[in-house]
Amino acid sequence: MILLQLFLSYLKIGFFGFGGGYAMLSLIQNEVVVRHAWMTNAEFSDIVAVSQITPGPIAINSATYVGYSVGMQTGYIWCGVLGSVIATFAVCLPSLTLMILVAKFFLRLKDNRYIEGAMKGMRPAVIGMIAAAALLLIFPRSDAPGDQNFIDLWSWALFGAVFLGSWRKVNPILLIVLSAVAGILIYYPR
User: Fold this and answer.
1) Is the pLDDT of residue 144 over 60?
2) What is the pTM of this model?
């Protein structure tokens, strides 16, 4: 039953996750943390961090990890692997289907004023969803134990330093490596 819920949740995320992975984060967080309580906000924040540093789209990476984690709640490792396959397939299925249809009809519909209007209308919604995902990570909705956010004074300092580095066009890989080193030095338990 839990694997069916996982499939339906990620199918819904795949259908309504316009704007890419960051726009999908609020949908994923709502399904995984709020609706089904498969994990806490702190665990979800860790998944977002790992999904960002691994190759590939963030929505697919997080689907794979959440699917494995949810499947492992059954106690069988094969369910963990099956859960990651199911969640990854479910989040990709709507995009694959839509891209096949769009590719078939795009040349006929690209100048359609309704299609252009729909695309222009979705742009602000995507920006709002990305902002909502950021705010949900900073200010979690729940007061459950272990559901605290990851923000502290050091987090703001690292954010400011990386933001300034990005503004000054410092190599992003260097910023990631330096942030990891700073995180180890600051947060590693002594």
Assistant:
1) no
2) 0.61
